[in-house]
Amino acid sequence: MSVSTTSVSLDKPVVHPPRRMPGDHGSPLTQSRGVARVLRIVSTALIALWFALPFLPLMLWSFANQWMHPAAFPMEAGTDGLTAAIANGGGRAFLHSLLLSLVVAAIATPLGAMAARALSRGHVRFGKAITVLLFSPVLLPPFAAVLGLNVLLLRAWVPPAVGVVLVLVAVAIPYTTFSMRAAYAAYDDGFDDAARTLGASSRLTLWRIHLPLIAPALARSAFLAFLVGWSDYLITLVVGGGHMITLPLIIASSASGVGNESSVAVLSLSAVIPPLILLGFIARTRNLDPGKQR
Amino acid sequence: MTAVQSRPRRQGMRATLLVLPAIIPVAIVVIGGIGTTVVQSLGLMPLVGTPALSVDAFESTDNLLGSALLSLGIAVVSTTIAAVVGFFTAVLIISGNWGGRIVGALSAAAVTVPHLVGAASVGLLLSDSGVLARILGIPPESWPALVAGPTWFAVIAEYAWKESAFVALIIVGTLATRITSYDETAAVLGASRGARLRLVLFPLAAPSLLVASAIAFAYTLGSYEVAWLLGKTYPEPLSVMALRLFNSASLTARPEAAAVAVITLLLTAAIVGVAMLGLRRMRAWQ
């Protein structure tokens, strides 16, 4: 009788299929077959085309040096558009836009987070009226407020740049407040309480426990506030009174002219890319959300 | 004893201090802005002369009704398209297969595009010597006037494009998990595709669809740059008219611009009110 031993290797990677939780997107149950499948693929393609089509001219015109009319595609590729865009002051405008959007995000995000914290715990008097007020800038036609405000700010001797930031912060606050409110609805105060019970000061609790836990939500709020500053045209134009030349202002003046398609495309593309990069970062931070871990 | 009593008050105080920094800028912009606009429209804040209460600005503005109807028409058509496309986009995204993921990424990208950039690219796409006309090989003289034409096609297309992505984002963000579990339950119980769409997905998505559509409608009504860039010069939507009057050299034009703004505010308030009533009915019924 002989005894043999075989070694079992434990570090062989065991491949688990991704675990599906109830409520995850998609499942074999609701997947389509046959005619429904064809219909689904066609409708998916049509909707993808609907969202992608307006990006097409930006891609084609940005790198076209020469594209005479009957030709279906650009005849000569090059960077003439980029050169023209920089000659029009595109570089400076890009930096102004970036600075303005970052300032708006840096102010509107903490304000929104603080308001959301207070409102979500229900200790605020006139909570409902305050909620309505803080949400109202979303529904307010910007030009209606700006026409009046312009007079108000001029009479109060508010510098144009400060006025632009003030109005954009007010427009961004609904987005930051309501996205932070959703985050606080899922936030467990037990983390803060545990830290305080263990002897941490309230400041230490805020910096080491509270802020790291809500950081992903803060990032999302800041992104929304950034977008408000980045997308604005009218408020910068009227309240800024021509002192602040941001990217949308340059795009508007190029696009309302004739014959500078490639310059418009390059400027537009440079306005599309930064938010997309930020969106990529935001999408990756998602799993840290304390609300989603539970 | 006093410590116990003062605790709620201290909490209330702390909460007020936390809310106040957000309230101040919003109140300045919303209450200050609207207040000044209303005062201007009633002739109480003229550039020159003595202030006198009057509704002249509302009566003397040319074609105010025509502009209001035009603005409403553009907003109704573009919001309707955005709501329909946005709802089906959300359904595709929630289904979670690869097509849904592509559509999800593209619509998220569309949400981040500034409206002005959207307008510039729609202009490059749809004008008579635009990219679409070139790719399809249609000469400018037989290409329909989509940009700056009588149908406001390009303006409506830009709003519908951007806002459909917004509507889809709101529906997916607020209801994705609930929708999927109910959808699966209905599928287990043997509901057909059409029945699930009509009786499960649509009713569950309806409240957020309504809210998103109301926001999109209010935005479209008050937006300036798209209609200014892609629209006809006459008749003009309310926002374009207000800005033209605001920048004009005539002294009577400022109150008229403010009057146009007040009309827009009233229309927006009416639409939002109707949407809130609809939302309340939906809540009662669920």
Describe this structure in words.
The complex is a heterodimer of chains A (294) and B (286). Chain A is mostly helical and 294 residues long. Chain A has helices at residues 34-52, 56-62, 80-87, 90-120, 127-139, 142-155, 160-185, 190-197, 202-231, 234-240, 247-255, 261-285, 290-293, and strands spanning 64-66, 76-77. Chain A is globular. In chain A, 68% of the residues lie in helices and 2% in strands. Chain A is built from 13 helices and two strands. In chain A, helix 4 packs across helix 11 and helix 8 packs antiparallel against helix 9 (202-231). A two-stranded antiparallel ribbon of chain A has the order 1-2. Helix content of chain B is 79%, strand content 0%. In chain B, helix 1 (2-41) packs across helix 11 (253-285), helix 3 packs antiparallel against helix 4 and helix 8 (193-222) runs antiparallel to helix 11 (253-285). Chain B has a single domain (62-285), classed as MetI-like (MetI-like fold, Orthogonal Bundle), CATH 1.10.3720.10. Chain B starts with a helix and ends with a helix.
Task: Itemize the secondary structure elements and their pairings.
The complex is a heterodimer of chains A (294) and B (286).
Chain A: H1 34-52, H2 56-62, E1 64-66, E2 76-77, H3 80-87, H4 90-120, H5 127-139, H6 142-155, H7 160-185, H8 190-197, H9 202-231, H10 234-240, H11 247-255, H12 261-285, H13 290-293
Antiparallel strand pairs in A: 1-2
Helix pairs in contact in A: 2-12, 3-12, 4-7, 4-9, 4-11, 5-7, 6-10, 7-9, 7-10, 8-9, 9-12, 11-12
Chain B: H1 2-41, H2 56-60, H3 64-95, H4 98-112, H5 115-126, H6 131-136, H7 153-188, H8 193-222, H9 225-230, H10 238-247, H11 253-285
Looking at the structure, the CATH topology of the largest domain in chain A is: MetI-like fold
Give the CATH superfamily of chain B: MetI-like
Most strands sheet of chain B:
none
Q: What is the CATH fold-level name of chain B?
A: MetI-like fold
> What's the number of helices of chain B?
11
Largest sheet of chain A: 2 strands, antiparallel
CATH architecture of chain B: Orthogonal Bundle
The share of residues in extended strands of chain A comes to under 5%
Q: What structural class is derived from the secondary structure elements of chain A? A: mainly alpha
Give the averaged pLDDT of chain A, no decimals.
Answer: 83
* The CATH top-level class label of the largest domain in chain A: Mainly Alpha
Task: Classify the oligomer.
Answer: heterodimer
The percentage helix of chain B is over 70%
Q: What proportion of the residues of chain A is helical, as a percent range? A: 55-70%
CATH H-level homologous superfamily name of the largest domain in chain A: MetI-like
Q: What is the rounded Rg of chain A?
A: 26 Å
CATH architecture of the largest domain in chain A: Orthogonal Bundle
How are strands sequenced across the largest beta sheet of chain A?
1-2
Q: Counting H and I runs of at least 4 residues, what is the number of helices of chain A?
A: 13
Could you tell me the number of beta strands of chain B?
0
Q: Give the SSE string of chain A.
A: HHEEHHHHHHHHHHH
